[in-house]
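User: I'll paste a sequence; please echo it back and then give the predicted structure.

Assistant: Echoing your sequence first, then the prediction.
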Amino acid sequence: SSVMLERLASIDYSQGKLKSALANYAAALALPTSPLQRQRIMLNHASLLGIFDRKEEAYAAYQNFVKEYPEFPDQSQVHRRLMELARALGKTDDETKWKQLLNGGQK
């Protein structure tokens, strides 16, 4: 179940088994989840992709999160990460877009 996979991923992460945690989060995303559980899994999965320097995949994962959960209370955290990844990937237009959203839409 997605609950068990998320728990296993969390244990793996706490034990430094990051590859296993990443695999378990990815597997959990393929299964039915509650909306709050899906949010947690998506954010943890995207974060681990970044840790493994899989920036393009992490960027796509965070973008998907923003599309799926536009009302997420802490969008600034996600926008900041998207801005950082866009900068690292040389996506200057995207970096500007996320920076503006992070600053409340101001240029």
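Helices lie at 2-14, 18-29, 35-51, 55-68, 75-88, 92-102. The chain is about 75% helix and 0% strand.
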